[in-house]
Amino acid sequence: IEPAEVLNLGKIVMQTQNELLEKVTIEADRIPMQIKKDTIEYNARAFETRAGATVEDLLKKLPGVEVEKDGTIKAQGETINKVLVDGKEFFGDDPLIATKNLPADAMEKVQVFDQLSEMSQFTGVDDGSRDKTINLTLKEDKKNGLFGSVEGGYGENDRYNGKLNLNQFTKKQQ
Length: 174
What we know:
This protein is mainly β. The protein has three helices and eleven strands, in the order E-E-H-E-E-E-E-E-H-E-H-E-E-E.
């Protein structure tokens, strides 16, 4: 195979053309995050996770959010003390229950904010104490019904493992 011949076209002069645009509109399917007053709101659909991923896997992808090996969550350098689901506590005060058990694909938004202490909420008097909190907002089609996952395995010497995660949500209870 012979190398291609070099073709000399000589000097080519290009002319500039300027055009002033009146308006430019940029549209996006998914804005990844918004800051609303004291709340950072992440659009969960803008951050891809693998099939079967948990909320913990989703949180690892969010900018400004870190998940330690033990499951401890930090946002903007502060430890998360509470995880809410649709504004309500999810099985008590342990934030790991929600993040390790809920599926990432059920989430619509993840909100990070400083919540008033329980005493301040009860009395209506701000005592200056705040808890760094994450609120997980479920997709509308995940707010009613059951969802979950099942895992199982069997190995040598009668060793086995199993895991069942079943979540039921209605508008009144979780």
